[in-house]
């Protein structure tokens, strides 16, 4: 069934707040797949901040991190957040794992934090020695360091979210339906 964002009635409570839905969470929480599922449910477009940054850079984020460092990457994320604030509305935005740190995050739209525990994230990423996902996500080459970063970020994710969605064994569509229901129950999205 084809839908249009024009058919969606938004009732965001803060004047000037963008009418986007941002999906945040630690790497491997399922942000991108949930954003795609939510787009299917609502008829809204979905974008991924990591994909947008890679399009701008013409290289992978991993390569950029190696050559320029995390601080330079965080500046790019802020630049992207500024662009979202000025140019994007009525869109679902899957964010990178550290995007929750950008200034003005909560004004970009309704922030939905996918709260997955560390074991669930490891299962999502199929983390084990020599696994391709481990190679693609260098942080997970040292599980102790990954767990430490996860523990440090967890309260910040919660603090920088309008809604918290607990991730367990649900699939992406189930999580997307939960987000849709939460937004509807709070009067933020049309029934």
TrEMBL record:
Function: Catalyzes the specific phosphorylation of the 3-hydroxyl group of shikimic acid using ATP as a cosubstrate.
Binding positions for Mg(2+) per the UniProt entry: 32
Record-level GO BP terms: amino acid biosynthetic process; aromatic amino acid family biosynthetic process; chorismate biosynthetic process
Annotated organism of origin: Desulfobulbus oralis
Note accompanying the cofactor annotation: Binds 1 Mg(2+) ion per subunit.
PANTHER family from the UniProt entry: SHIKIMATE KINASE, SHIKIMATE KINASE 1, CHLOROPLASTIC
One cellular-component annotation, GO: cytosol
Cofactor(s) named in the record: Mg(2+)
Keyword annotations from UniProtKB, A to Z: Amino-acid biosynthesis, Aromatic amino acid biosynthesis, ATP-binding, Cytoplasm, Kinase, Magnesium, Metal-binding, Nucleotide-binding, Transferase
EC number: 2.7.1.71
Name of the protein in its database record: Shikimate kinase
Pathway the protein contributes to: Metabolic intermediate biosynthesis; chorismate biosynthesis; chorismate from D-erythrose 4-phosphate and phosphoenolpyruvate: step 5/7
HAMAP family, alphabetized: Shikimate_kinase
Lineage of the species this protein comes from: Bacteria, Pseudomonadati, Thermodesulfobacteriota, Desulfobulbia, Desulfobulbales
Quaternary structure and interacting proteins, as annotated: Monomer.
CDD domains reported in the protein's UniProt record: SK (cd00464)
Places the protein is found: Cytoplasm
InterPro entries documented for this protein: P-loop_NTPase, Shikimate/glucono_kinase, Shikimate_kinase/TSH1
Residues the record lists as binding substrate: 50, 74, 97, 153
Family in the record: Belongs to the shikimate kinase family.
Reactions the enzyme catalyzes: shikimate + ATP = 3-phosphoshikimate + ADP + H(+)
Binding annotation for ATP: 28-33, 137, 170
MF term (GO), any: shikimate kinase activity
């Amino acid at each position: 069934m084809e839908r249009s964002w024009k058919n969606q009635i938004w009732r965001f409570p803060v004047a000037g707040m963008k009418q986007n839905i941002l999906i945040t969470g630690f790497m491997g929480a399922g942000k991108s797949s949930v954003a795609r599922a939510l787009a299917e449910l609502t008829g809204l477009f979905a974008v991924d901040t990591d994909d947008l940054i890679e399009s701008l850079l013409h290289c992978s984020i991993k390569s950029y991190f190696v050559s320029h460092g995390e601080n330079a990457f965080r500046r790019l994320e802020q630049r992207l957040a500024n662009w979202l604030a000025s140019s994007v509305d009525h869109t679902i935005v899957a964010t990178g794992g550290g995007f929750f740190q950008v200034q003005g995050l909560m004004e970009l739209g309704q922030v939905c934090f996918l709260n997955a525990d560390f074991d669930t994230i490891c299962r999502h990423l199929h983390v084990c020695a020599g696994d391709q996902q481990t190679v693609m996500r260098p942080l997970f080459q040292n599980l102790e360091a990954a767990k430490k970063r996860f523990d440090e970020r967890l309260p910040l994710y919660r603090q920088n979210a309008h809604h918290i969605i607990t991730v367990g064994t649900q699939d992406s569509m189930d999580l997307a339906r939960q987000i849709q229901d939460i937004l509807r129950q709070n009067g933020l999205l049309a029934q």
